[in-house]
Amino acid sequence: MFDNLQRHLGLAATGLLCLAMSGLVHAHPHGWIDLRMRLVVDDDGQLTGLHQSWRMDPFYSLVVLEELGQVGDDGGLDAALDQLGIEIRDNLVPYGYYTELTLAGEKLSFDEVNDYTVLERGGRVEFIFLLPLAEPQPLAGQTLRYQVFDPTYYIEMVHEEENREPADDALLVGGALACETRIRPADPDPEKVMQAAMLDVDDAAEPGLGRHFAETGEVTCR
Asked: Which InterPro entries does the record match to this protein (predicted)?
């Protein structure tokens, strides 16, 4: 029933999306996601998880919502979105939820995602979830870095923007720690840009291509 939707975020490159993209990369990516990130910090100043919001682009959202409307379940759109959320979550598990996180240069691991939802907001589909750390980590005196990306770069993932700059709420830190945040733009090697540009709609990129086009969020706490 939801096979096509699973491929959208299966994040496999099979072809429902034909969105024309501007810029250097013409054939890849085929859609984008606007990302917001909030670090969840407990009363002891320890990072316990990453609260993420992924807002699908308008064309992508239209395709998904139209397909959900054709499912015909008695529960209506809300029930269909709930089912979609389950499938998105399950599809992301083998890919580490598209998230890589390091603290003081050490890669951190995650626990299972159980707190998530999918909703329609302003005509766009939004997937919201809490990605818990396997173990809480102290942030004081440390620098944290993360990247969120589709390994195949079929879908581009960027932080929410306002006037071509990261939005004020694109990266937030909860709790009482004094932290500095920054979002560094991607700086891919020209060879990788050319590699992505040569991919056609039916081509599958090599695993890991998306990493080269990912923004990097940085948080330094005192």
From this structure: DUF1007 (IPR010412)
